[in-house]
Amino acid sequence: MNRSFRRIGALGAATVAAVTFAAAAPAAAAPAADGLEFTLYAKEVPSDDSGSPGARPEVGDSFAFADDLSRTKGGETIGRDGVTCTVVRAGDPMDVLCVGTFVLNGGPGGQLTAQNLLSVDPSDEAPAAFDIAVTGGTGDFKDARGWIRSTPDGDYSRMEFHIGR
């Protein structure tokens, strides 16, 4: 898979993905009515998977990727994510189903899970922002719900978290 196709599927990360809580999240987080709002940056960790360049994805094709998470571009790594995506509808555009987990170091501590179904134009080198559903969590994020807005930002994905409980 090419990098832009992989990045689009991120939950923060992204995508998910995904894309992502952090040890310093409380200092950077603004309390919302019943939750937290904060922004993190996801930078994809290089992998050895070069995929098949130029091959058109088919239903059932899947890929995985991981991101390091920080409060600022190039800042200290404060978490990580892992995302898997599967093509569920071929065509132009195609649909990609992605599921990811975000791990935060320190406090608050725990994991967040998230997923989305994303329509993707494989030829689009400048993908648009998209939203990711937060489906749950562990530790300090037990019963978490909400959404994450993932926006491409150069070599990073800007991940805006809106988390309720």
Q: Describe it for me?
A:
The protein is mostly beta strands and 165 residues long. The chain contains 2 helices and 9 strands, in the order ααβββββββββ. Strand 4 and strand 5 form a beta hairpin. The radius of gyration is 15 Å and the shape is globular. The chain starts with a helix and ends with a strand. The model is unreliable at 1-28 (pLDDT under 50). Residues 1-29 form the signal peptide.
* Low-confidence runs: 1-28
Radius of gyration: 15 Å
- DSSP helical segment count: 2
Cα separation of the termini? 36 Å
- How many β-strand runs? 9
Sheet with the most strands, sense and barrel status: 8 strands, antiparallel, barrel
- Which strand order do you get reading across the main beta sheet? 2-3-4-5-6-7-8-9
Mean of residue pLDDT values: 79
Shape descriptor: globular
Protein name: Dirigent-like protein
Keywords: Signal
InterPro entries: Allene_oxi_cyc_Dirigent
Signal peptide: 1-29
